[in-house]
Amino acid sequence: MTVTLNAYNVVAARCAAEFLEMTEDVDRGNLVSKIEVFLNSSIFRRWKDSIIVLQTSKSLLPWSEDLKIVGRCIDSIASKTSVDPAYITWSYTCNRKLTEPDKIVEDKMTFLEKIESVPKDWWVEDICELDIDLYKRVMVAVRSKGRMDGVVIGEALKTYALRWIPDSVDTLVSDANTSRTKSVVETIVCLLPYDNGISCSCSFLLKLLRVAILVGVNESSREELMKSISLKLHEACVKDLLIPARSPQTTTYDVHLVQGILNHHMNHEKGICGMEVAEEKHGGEDKYTLARRSLLNVGKLVDGYLGEIAHDPNLGLSSFVDLSQSIPDFARPDHDGLYRAIDIYLKQHLNLTKAERKKLCGLMDVRKLTAGASVHAAQNERLPLRLVVQVLFFDQVRSSISFRTPGSNSTRDPLCSPLYRDEGCVTTAGDSCQPLKNQMSHLRIKDEELGKKNRKNSKSGIQLLPSRSWRIFDKLWSMRKRHGENRSSETSGSCSSPTSIGQGDTKSYGLSLRHHRHSIS
């Protein structure tokens, strides 16, 4: 009887020959030996035949495993994946677009060379047809060879995930797919490269985390995935972080999950760079500089995320504050993004108490607001009156500095004033008078200049400051002027200006001004 052996029936024939004991002990050149010659000389030498044999061996377990057919197929596949692409002559499937490095090389090739060129990840699509348990064993063997670049391994995992994870959420959570998808996600997380997740994009990892939450993967896999994401958080976008919250959470998005990822990221940055090491070099650049650069991106990401979740009426103030305070100060060169998020939160949460509003607005530093944001904040009636005063004060100080005389050498922090003293600005007793004089001189606004500006702005239809802001400034100015008149008898004749205050009156004036400030707020 003539039997034609091929990749689809050779495993069944080999198992049957073993069961029937058709070995050399019975007859020379028996079926077992003939099939082994066929496997070694033909099947294991071919790329696609090795994959087909591995697929068919699953239905014949444990015979195929005991006969080492599975192990030999896996070793054959893993060995072929590590071959230099320039020497690949067998057929393979590659429907994906070339990567950027391949495109650069492609421009320098002739037409014939373009047809014959082989990308490094030529093999990833063919093994996607394997079941997840066999796929895991193949990928472990590929990594154990130590010849495969982590980027290619990451591409292989991404391709397999796209092949087997459904796009539809309804299909994903159905009984028929939940168990298989859960196994796929846990396996991919287990196979992530050891090089700190560099091989996979942060966007792909976040999408994988979203699926992991939906299908309920185990806690260890979720934790490992969060750590991998945290290492590339500076590459993420706000849209990828908007992961829907699951019961029993009442918020729209899973804020606690993002908080955990951010905590992992900050712990990693502190552990690697120490947040204070500035002398170690890495790739020709300072590690501390690299850390600051990535944290600047993270700062923008956090502020953008805060602006999105601030619309949620169920978002608690503590969650908003904790997330905002998770990054260092230098990660926010300006506070415009944070101000926008705070303004949205105030708009959506009208029932906040005075203490809660003060705590929320205390996250923002008015010195880091740009000119446009300062103008908006000065007209924002949702902000506490005290904060509006601070914005106006610094805005006027900034304006006066830009028009000060060339001989002026006042360079002190304009916010170290009585208006800000209880916010943490501390001065020594010996220097307490001069800063106050400087700050009060900055506050001096000549009536002529104000008149000119108001007339000019009224003609153009633009008001310099809103009526609410003028009322605040008028009240502060009148209090300061009355205090200056009361003290005029104790000063020299040349100190008739309201901004001239004697050395001995500095402390009492600061206390008085602070008292009046609290009375209007």
UniProtKB/TrEMBL annotation:
Region (Disordered): 483-521
Family the UniProt entry places it in: Belongs to the NPH3 family.
Bias kind Low complexity: ranges: 489-500
Ranges of residues in domain NPH3: 121-398
Native species: Glycine max
Entry superkingdom: Eukaryota
Keyword Transmembrane helix assigned: no
Matching Pfam families: NPH3
Sections of the chain in a coiled coil: none
Keywords: Ubl conjugation pathway
Keyword Cell wall biogenesis/degradation: no
Protein name as catalogued: NPH3 domain-containing protein
